Amino acid sequence: MGAFLDKPKMEKHNAQGQGNGLRYGLSSMQGWRVEMEDAHTAVIGLPNGLDGWSFFAVYDGHAGSQVAKYCCEHLLDHITSNQDFKGPDGPPSVESVKSGIRTGFLQIDEHMRVISEKKHGADRSGSTAVGVMISPQHTYFINCGDSRGLLCRNRKVHFFTQDHKPSNPLEKERIQNAGGSVMIQRVNGSLAVSRALGDFDYKCVHGKGPTEQLVSPEPEVYEIERSEEDDQFIILACDGIWDVMGNEELCDFVRSRLEVTDDLEKVCNEIVDTCLYKGSRDNMSVILICFPNAPKVSPEAVKREAELDKYLESRVEDGV
């Protein structure tokens, strides 16, 4: 959705941090879009005694940025404060975490609906959400929409979330059961995602619950046991990245760049610049989260990079 500019806005927003044995960097760029509708969350150390836990998420807004911005500020609170998430004594169990994340999504969606109705339906925006909650023992991938998260383990793509597209058979069945249709791979010929937060124009079918609507706010939550020896890094990104780079391609790209620099902001900026060069016309946001066993800077790789830069400079000079 949205119109395009005559030339892309290439200024980037960056952040980085570390803690709980993790390092992260992020980059976001407006690109060719008229408005920047992406948002993000990066929190190391969660409330209620979960100091060793962390949460990261990317939100890809559409038809406006309001829902994405609200979620980046409040979704984590809705997850960690609901009763389904909290354990009876001590850290929550795996099932409590998964249930609490789901409840948090449904709660914030209903909360935003109430806010929108008080404004007489002024906000029609929506947002995808992809995130990870990382505990000392587990990584929980969270996805609602067509942004994507990926885990690189032992130099390979070990896991990635599944995009929620209207053409997916299970998504299409729900849409049709709610009286809708899938045309040109869009909900009612308009919306390109089948799950999202917000988008309340698609959530008003009487007699259907929140997860049975044309567009569902229900996330898929995947639990993966951490491997201290093999886990290397996680990538969270909106579809402005994935539209032009595949899972293996981006995993290989990040791994090769980490052998040249340990500046995670720089690596994320290189991802965004590469995707712009490859033709992405969307907003672009990416978070890179590195585990202790992430690739380390290699003198050999740094030397190869320097030699390549020198060669390219000489070719440019020869051509001038």
Automatic annotation (TrEMBL):
Keywords: Cytoplasm, Hydrolase, Lipoprotein, Magnesium, Manganese, Membrane, Metal-binding, Myristate, Phosphoprotein, Protein phosphatase
Listed Pfam families: PP2C (PF00481), PP2C_C (PF07830)
PROSITE patterns named among the record's database cross-references: PPM_1, PPM_2
InterPro entries linked to this entry: PP2C (IPR015655), PP2C_BS (IPR000222), PP2C_C (IPR012911), PPM-type-like_dom_sf (IPR036457), PPM-type_phosphatase-like_dom (IPR001932)
Entries under Gene3D superfamilies matching the protein: PPM-type phosphatase domain
Coiled coil: none
EC number(s) given by UniProt: 3.1.3.16
Catalytic activity field: O-phospho-L-threonyl-[protein] + H2O = L-threonyl-[protein] + phosphate
Membrane-topology annotation of the record: Lipid-anchor
SMART domains linked: PP2Cc (SM00332)
MF annotations from Gene Ontology: magnesium ion binding; manganese ion binding; protein serine/threonine phosphatase activity
GO cellular component, as recorded: cytosol; membrane
Cofactors demanded by this protein: Mg(2+); Mn(2+)
Protein name, entry field: protein-serine/threonine phosphatase
Organism: Lepidothrix coronata
Lineage: Eukaryota, Metazoa, Chordata, Craniata, Vertebrata
Designated gene of the protein: PPM1A
